Amino acid sequence: MNDNKNYKPQFKKNYHKSNQPKTSVQDTIEIGQRIPLTIKRLGINGEGIGYFKHTICFVKGALPDEVVTATVTTVHPRYMTAELHTIREKSKNRVEPRDAYADEVGGFELEHLAYPAQLEFKRDVVRQALEKYRPAGHQYYKLLPTIGMDNPYEYRNKAQFQIRKLDGKVAAGLYKEGSHDLVDLPTCSVQHPLTMKIMRRVVALLDELDVPIYDEEHGSGIVKTIVVRVAVATNEAQLVFITNSTKLPHKREMIAELQKDFLEIVSYMQNVNKGKTSLVWGDDTTCLAGKTFIQDKLDGLTFNLSARAFYQLNPSQTSKLYAEARKALDLSSDENLVDAYSGVGTIGLSLADQVKEVRGMDIIPESVEDANENAKLNGITNATYEVGRAEDLVSQWMAAGFHPDALIVDPPRTGLDDKLIETILAAKPERFVYISCNPSTLARDLTKLTTDYIIDYIQSIDMFPQTARCEAVVKFTRRW
């Protein structure tokens, strides 16, 4: 028998607690509820972050240091989202967006934030990713200030807009975030002006000539997407009609009108992508008029760009990006360089005069064809490119006796394949630079790469002003 008089009540209290269902945020907060928040920071997608009843809340359009009221839109066990309702105390860094639809579609999510604060945010995005994945020594990494633009507008050299009918009129633009509801974009402050002039003229012609426009719900119609790319250095432009069939009614009339209006368009292409698919491009591309490519110049080299070939969207920042990559690699003339995820060869070819040999690869055949043609175009004889996955080709080259002394990787947003990481760790190139367009997958990859490499520094570069996207150059030193 226990003589402690507190024993029985204590037992009842513990028993009561253990049998009561735990209260969650879903039990105490309702969708549609209006809540007060003080915004502490920005999340990786540019949304404001505050806390209500100890629960994290993401509020699109809110900025750090703002006091706001927000309307709850979704409630999850560990977090919630809300729409900005009113700003009670405004951030000193809040500015008026140039685009009226900046809060509707992607690509403008930071246009309400002063540009110097955008640059600091992008360095912080890298920091947030490192804190989440915690690669070895991450708290000591040197994160250099983000390299920005003097004029952070009109930089995108390619417009890729969906084409639909809205209220009986042809519209060209982007989808609202999280939906397939099209927002017509008659202007766009981050696009090169020529891309928009061509786009709007094409829209007018599609309307005037009553060209069948794709209907996503029924899978009918023809024109799905219009792509306009401008070579900024040469002012050459390429127009691509992405269609639901091989037919393109009134193509001759459209091209004839456009040729009168735009001497800059030297390439008219059609890409066929039939049926409902999440992919923008199909496999078949044909030339309707003019050349199959446009020609641009970058860092003293000339590049042919076919319709599907990857090419950086911000040419002025691309020069800065490649300068940082060259500085980080610090190459010598007796070394072999691998240019992984090469696109049309822009990085590798710009480094060819500093090394013995460049080998590169890409999974898009048109890009590889362009890369090899670009090598010839520029009189570069020590660079070759192949079609294939980086992880497969590097292993094959090593098995055949080729040793990569230096490696530069510029992967898609998904980051490096695990097999390629294993190959890199086996090859142990002395000079290694990683160009990343996604800090989250970069930080994830660093958890594996830091077993054999030390991070000298991470240099963030703003390739996409007014957005939450961030590019970074990582310089590695091999552990001995």
Automatic annotation (TrEMBL):
Query: Is Cell membrane tagged as a keyword?
Result: no
Q: Where is this region: Disordered?
A: 1-25
Q: Which InterPro entries does this chain map to?
A: MeTrfase_TrmA_AS (IPR030390), NA-bd_OB-fold (IPR012340), SAM-dependent_MTases_sf (IPR029063), TRAM_dom (IPR002792), U5_MeTrfase_fam (IPR010280)
Q: Where is the active site?
A: 437, 437 (nucleophile)
Pfam families from the UniProt entry: TRAM, tRNA_U5-meth_tr
* Keywords for this protein: Methyltransferase, S-adenosyl-L-methionine, Transferase
| GO term, biological process aspect, one | rRNA base methylation
Indicate the family of this protein: Belongs to the class I-like SAM-binding methyltransferase superfamily. RNA M5U methyltransferase family.
NCBIfam families noted in UniProt: rumA
Q: What name is this protein filed under?
A: RNA methyltransferase, TrmA family
**What organism is recorded for this protein?**
Pediococcus damnosus
